[in-house]
Design a protein that fits this description.
The protein is mostly beta strands. Helix content is 8%, strand content 41%. The relative contact order is 0.29.
Length: 122
C-alpha cells in the first residue's frame, strides 16, 4: 500500500511503498532539533514525486548523510544515508530515512517508537 507524504507547503511531495511498522527517534543534536521520527526504506521503496529543485540539502559532520528539506517552507522531509546497522557506514546499501511526521493518512501514534542514542553514537 503506497503512503504519500509532503512538507507543510506541499512543494515537496514523496511516497513510500508501505507504512512503517515502527519509527526511530534519534537523540543526536540534529534530529532532536528537527523533531523527526524516522522510518527507513531502501531507495527503490521511496519516490520523490515533485521536482528535485524543490529540495534543499544540509550535510554536517562527516558529510555522509544528505539531509533533505523543502526549499520553500523548510520542513525536514527525508535523508539519504549509508546503512549504519553494523556500526560503520555501508555505502553499498544506502537507506532513505523518511520523516514520518509528514506522512498523510498514517496513524503515527499507533506504531512503536525506538529511541536510539545518537547523542553519543555519532
Amino acid at each position: 500500500m503506497t503512503i504519500k507524504g509532503s512538507c507543510h507547503c506541499g512543494a515537496t511531495r514523496f511516497e513510500v511503498d508501505e507504512a512503517p511498522a515502527s519509527v526511530t527517534q534519534c537523540t543526536c543534536s540534529f534530529c532532536s532539533k528537527r523533531g523527526a521520527l524516522w522510518a527507513y526504506y531502501k531507495p527503490r521503496q521511496f519516490r520523490l514525486t515533485t521536482p528535485v529543485e524543490q529540495v534543499a540539502t544540509y550535510r554536517w559532520g562527516s558529510n555522509t548523510v544528505a539531509h533533505r528539506f523543502c526549499a520553500s517552507c523548510g520542513c525536514g522531509t527525508y535523508s539519504e544515508t549509508p546503512d549504519w546497522s553494523t556500526g560503520t557506514a555501508d555505502f553499498d546499501n544506502p537507506k532513505i530515512s523518511v520523516n514520518t511526521r509528514l506522512l498523510d493518512d498514517f496513524d503515527l501514534a499507533a506504531v512503536p517508537v525506538e529511541v536510539i542514542d545518537g547523542k553519543t553514537m555519532w
